From TrEMBL:
InterPro entries: DYW_dom (IPR032867), E2_motif (IPR046849), E_motif (IPR046848), PPR_At4g14850-like_plant (IPR046960), PPR_rpt (IPR002885), TPR-like_helical_dom_sf (IPR011990). Belongs to the PPR family. PCMP-H subfamily. It comes from the Eukaryota. Pfam families: DYW_deaminase, E_motif, Eplus_motif, PPR, PPR_2. The keyword Repeat applies. This is DYW domain-containing protein. PPR repeats lie at residues 71-106, 142-176, 280-314, 315-349, 425-455, 529-563. Keywords: Repeat. The lineage of its organism: Eukaryota, Viridiplantae, Streptophyta, Embryophyta, Tracheophyta. Transmembrane segments: none annotated. Coiled coil: none annotated. The keyword Repeat applies.
Amino acid sequence: MSSMVLYSRQAKKMISVYKKKMLLKTKVKHQQYIMRTGNLSDAKIVSSYLLSDCPSQAFSALVYVSPSSTELFYWNSLIKHYVVVSKNIKKAISIFITMRKLGWLPDGYTYPYVLKASGELPCFFLGASVHGLLVVSGFEWNVFVCNAVVAMYGRCGSVDLARQMFDEMTGVGMLDVISWNSICVVYVHSGDFERALEMFGLMVRRGGLCLRPDVISLVNVLAACASLRNWRIGKEIHCCSIRRGLIEDVFVGNGLVDMYAKCGLMDKAEVIFDRMEVKDVVSWNAMVTGYSQIGQFDDALELLKRMRVEEIELNVVGWSAVIAGYAQRGMGCQALDIFREMMHSGAEPNVVTLVSVLSGCAVVAALRQGKETHCYSIKRILNVDEYDSGEYMMVVNGLIDMYAKCKDLDTAQRMFESIEWSSRSVVTWTVMIGGYAQHGDSNSALELFSDMMQNKKGVIPNSFTISCALVACARLGALRFGRQIHAYVLRNRYESAMLFVANCLIDMYVKSGDIDTARVVFDSMKERNIVSWTSVMTGYGMHGRGEEALQIFEGIRRTSYVIDGVTFLVVLYACSHSGMVDLGISYFNNMSKDFGVLPEVEHYACMVDLLGRAGRLSDAMKLVEDMPMDPTPIVWVALLGACRLHSNVDLGEYAAAKLSELDSENDGTYTLLSNIYASAGRWKDVARIRSLMKNIGIRKRPGCSWVQGKKGTAMFYVGDRSHPISNDIYNLLTDLIDKIKVLGYVPETSYALHDVDDEEKGDLLFEHSEKLALAYGLLTTAPGVPIRIIKNLRVCGDCHTAMTYISKIVPHEIILRDSSRFHHIKNGSCTCKGYW
DNA sequence: GTAGGGTTAG
């Protein structure tokens, strides 16, 4: 082994020495030639430079040779060298351009290489102009050139033009196996796998005996089957490869392993893999990837061990596959472990590895490791000149996403802004929009989305972008914006990703208070999944339409979807918010028996909420005591909320104490407790809590409401007088309060402290943000149109009562969303029927 | 001509 290595090293050295000598001789000859003839070069000189493997010298010599058909050979050799050997496409093209300038006309050998070069860049205009040159120069077409045109258009993304060329070839009967393979590749690369399969079928049927699929055909069609997860056709190809005697080919074997692995049939993949006599690193990696993608990491790691034993060096793809597998499953820590092991083994991470690691950091919000990866990326990738390259942008997109998911939105934004508009891809926009949408700054998300849409020659949103924008709308309850996006979706084609988009639309309509349109979207879906069903059910639950929610649940039971914990959470939530206590209890008691879903902490919290709302506080407490796991803060918060609702001081104090034991005291805890004391008239305790909060330095989150006006959204804080029509708002409010007092409204002063830091109570009640928002809505909304208000915290009880009275005397439905549900208030009654 | 990667929902 080592002697062979030594030998090949020596041989290489000798060859390079020989070439250097040749080059030296040629240079001397060249100088002598110039002295002797006064000319700068001739064909012999060019030929000598080419033989001594020095294309750049050959090129500069060739420029001085006058055109004649025999010397065209040298141009073609040069172009071929740069396209095929050194893959310096730009150089190849500059040679072609020089050649044209000097008056040479390309021939049947030049065209395929130049077309290939255009495709590799890819540059549509170059390719199309070469095609144009072919047409106008009266070149006699042959099958090689035609195939090259098909491939070029395919690589430049013009599937239609590629197909047009192919059809013309069909018309004159100029097709060989390579033509069929070329058109198949075009479809595979464009993602139209069905059509690739269709073309393969046509080839087999039409071609007869003289057009038999070769290794390349099989490899392509296997890739299509793998992408479509169509193992039935894959199996047929498997048989075909046996019949044709091509199963021994390592490429075909790899294709089969990959196809079975992608279809999740790892046992079949294993059989092929074990029978392959020649395996290369691709075969191993395909298996490792297969196991990683179905989450069988033990098997993947076992293979890695076997590779070590058999001394096969795992390359970067294998490592990346395992890292990506972990990252996609949200197992960021394991992904980082493998990354460390990889660095340890000495393998060099590449773009794919880095992107996978970044995604791992993103899912576990590991900012420190993310920053380390950023540093490493700068060393490895981000210092290249090709700022615009796709690979560069991929890493940058991964970084922006990582920073956004780690909640470092400032850094994410700075990176995003440092990228020129022309370099931002749709993914760049999407990660930034999504980053804002997920971390609360939904207004910025929508602004960014508008920026992107208004850039005329810019980027077209894909289904991911649309989904992110809809998430932002849902958070803001921005129904108008959401409707515009819905209209955009209907005008443009998003069919292939409609499931995801429609699910987001449902959620947007639900959270914006339009459950009926959400239902229309749901009913019109061609394809649904468990998320679609659960979203609609959540909608009915949030809007207090418990019976309809449970009808949806019964609908799910009739489908074959697996009912999971999230679905059950929604069922319990719906029962809780519609007062269906006994039904909720029975669902909860039977969920593990009938559906195999074990109740988790969240389910217990929901049950505490359900019992607590119904006033069954001792039952709620008993449930907490009997929990098989330790209660987490959400459980105690639910209990505390119930104590507030039913003014139970003792239990409330207990829950608050438990919360502070768990180190999770937040402003909500203190506010609730303070309100419990207030409703019991224990003002001293209220004052104690207030000063405690001041001492510890906890500030209350200000209550804040916003309302959808004609011109966008208006936002109000408690006692807010900053709005231009503030005077009108307060006047209207005073007037309304007076009117409803006549109807029997009595201010509930115990809520006065709910939202104010100020010790004064009483008058301040009517400065609550939701009341201000309502008054603004009344002033700016046409009669008959619902007024939509959103509050960040839970709605105050007095505001709720006041709004119910007000709804008797105004020609509007009031649709109010708070942190827990929707209230539809109309003609003096509310859908929450007291179960808020 | 084969293997790996970034953005979305309950």
